[in-house]
Specification:
By secondary structure, the chain is of the alpha/beta class. 50% of the residues lie in helices and 13% in strands. Among the domains are: 35 residues; 111 residues; 39 residues, no CATH class; 60 residues, no CATH class. The strands form 3 sheets. Strands 7-1-4-3-2-6-5-8 form an 8-stranded mixed β-sheet, with no helix packed on it. A two-stranded antiparallel sheet has the order 9-10. A two-stranded parallel ribbon has the order 11-12.
Length: 460
Amino acid sequence: MIRRPNTSLAANPILVGASALLIAIVGVFLAYNANTGLPFVPTYEVTAVVRDADQLTANAEVRIGGKRVGILTGSEAEILPGGVPISRLALKLDRTVSDLPVDTRVRVRPRSIIGLKYIELTPGTSNRTIASGGVLPLSSARSNVDLQDALDAFDEGTRAAVGTVTRELGDGLAGRGAELNRALTAFDPLTRHLGPVMANLAAPETDLSGLLRGLDSAMAAIAPVAVELGGLFDGAATTLHAVARVDDSFAALIEEVPRAERETTAALREIRPVLTRATRLVDALGPGVALLPKASRRLSSALATGTPVIANAGALADRLRATLAALRALVRDPATAGSVIGLTRTLRSLVPTLRYLLPLQERCNYLGLYERNAASTVGEGDSNGNWFRFMPLQNTPDNPYRGKVPEGLHFDPYASTGQDGHCTAGNELFVPGTQIGDPPNASTAPTRNPATLPPAEARP
């Protein structure tokens, strides 16, 4: 009987050895990379920005609620533009915790007393989430007091001071149990009112942190003059010793303080409406006070201009007295009553006309400008004559009138001469093409024209 050779894989020692070696290599590879995640397993990567990496090492655990959900793959230090140092932590998380809320908080916490640390994530409640590759900003980081820092606070000097305070406190409380019990009983009202007080101190409107910063700045300013302050306290001690020698008077003063406080409180309650009205009055005076500088400058200019006029007003008053006396005699004369009445009616009818014409000169100074420019208008021109001449238009066969508006004609028959607060006439803005009626700058034309003055030699 002929036996066939065994062709089983298990019978081939080379193949078995190669398979075992391959399995061992894969196992070593997986074991080596187990800390950084298994291959072909999807992950959720996030960058967290913290103020202090606190000696975190690579492959430090990331936990949520105490459960390991990922690792730290690396960290990088960075200096912000304001000079603030930060650390960027690269986190590789399991897909089971993907889509963290944007208000998730980050904290570096101790893992053991030998210095190991881990990263704790506390998911927030926001509906917006962080995509893979996103960043948890610095505002999400929370500080943590390290155990080593807490232990370093109790150095040799601090321990000696705590021992001294404990001994002195023990000596102070020895034999005073009954008084201490009464004091604790008296603290009951204090504890009831302490809650609202602490709530007010913790309110953002109180800005307690700002107060502490201010006190810190004040102490820093006082430190250089600490020696001089010692002398101040010595002087205060002398003053207090003098007060102690007249303790009866000081006691009487203290006894009067509550009544004075009650009287002051009642007075302030009564004066509150007056202060409220005064506050409203000051608020109402605000716009007027803002205009006082401009008004005072105008008043000063008016006084400077009016002083010479007032100096010459005496002679005018004398003449005006005689004129008014003659006018009174004229009005009382029966023969002139009808004429005065007619004159009054005429003057009343002229009021609308004067109201229309007064801005023409008072605001826009057209008469003054006309008189000033008339001389140059008469003296200037071209080869055909001066600008002041005119040529009557006649409807003759040589000059037929067809009623056609020439291109480029600009004509404003009712230009404003100050009636609407603008001096439009003479200040029209030129625009190409035909322009009939109000020019484009009618609403933005100057509100006043330049003033005209007589020659310097003719001024008084």
